[in-house]
Amino acid sequence: xxxxxxxxxxxxxxxxxxxxxxxxxxxxxxxxxxxxxxxxxxxxxxxxxxxxxxxxxxxxxxxxxxxxxxxxxxxxxxxxxxxxxxxxxxxxxxxxxxxxxxxxxxxxxxxxxxxxxxxxxxxxxxxxxxxxxxxxxxxxxxxxxxxxxxxxx
Amino acid sequence: xxxxxxxxxxxxxxxxxxxxxxxxxxxxxxxxxxxxxxxxxxxxxxxxxxxxxxxxxxxxxxxxxxxxxxxxxxxxxxxxxxxxxxxxxxxxxxxxxxxxxxxxxxxxxxxxxxxxxxxxxxxxxxxxxxxxxxxxxxxxxxxxxxxxxxxxxxxxxxxxx
Lengths: 153, 161
Known about the structure:
The complex is a heterodimer.
Chain A: H1 2-7, H2 15-34, H3 40-47, H4 53-74, H5 94-110, H6 114-122, H7 128-145
Chain B: H1 2-6, H2 11-29, H3 37-47, H4 53-56, H5 64-82, H6 99-119, H7 123-132, H8 136-155, H9 157-160
Helix pairs in contact in B: 3-5, 7-8
C-alpha cells in the first residue's frame, strides 16, 4: 500500500483508493435510494412539513458524522496511506446565502440534491439525466459568471 | 433480515449509514464527503486547462475521485432498485415524465448546479460534513437551502406542483 501510494502519478490517487471510494459511493447510493431520500415525494413532504422522514435522516446523519469526527480527532486517526484526517473548512462568502437559496429552490423543484441525482440515474430513473444536464449547465453558467457575482462580505 | 433489506429502509438506518459515510471516506481515502464538486470536475475535465478560470484552475486529476464517487452512487442506486427491492422504487412522480416535467427538471437541475457551486457545497458537503465539523458557514448555507426550498414550495407551489 505504501509503495503504490508513492508510485502514483501526481494528482491521481492510488488505484486502491479509487476502488474504496467507489464502494463508499455505492453504499451511499444504496442508502439514498432504499430510504427514499432520492424520491421526489419524500423531499416534497419535507418542504411541506408533512413528514419528518427527511429531517430525521439529515439530522441523525449530522449527529453520527459529528460524533464520528470527534472520535477520529481524539484518536488522531490517520487515513489509509498515513495522512492525518483534516477537515478543510468551507469559507463564508455571499454565495453561501445566495447560492444556498438557489440550490434549495432547485432541490424543491427536482426533489434531488446532487447525491440523489446520481442515485436516481442508477435506479433507472432516466429523466434524472435531464436534472444532471441542467446541473452541468448551471455549473458552467456559474463558471462563466463567477467573476461578476458578489462574494465579499 | 431479508424482509428488512427488501422493504424501504427506515430513517434511523439511513441516517446512521449516511453519517458514517463521513468518517469512512476520510479513513479509506482521506477525502471529505461532498458530491457537488463532481459537477466542477466534469467541467474541468472537458475544459482541460482552457475556458473560464473556475474550470481552468481546477486540478481535474486531483478531482477525479469525485467522479469515481458519483459512479459509486450510480452503482448503489442500480443495486437498490434492481436487486434489493421487491417493489420498484419511485423516484420521480409520473407527472415528471412529460414535456412540462422535463422543463421543470432542466430548470431545477440548473438551479442545483448553479446554486451548489456558488454556495460551495450541497447537502453532503455543507449540511452533513460541514455542520458535523462545526463549520459555521456550512450551517448558514444549510439554513438558506431550506429558505430557498421552502420559498419555492410554499410560494410557487400551486404553480409548479
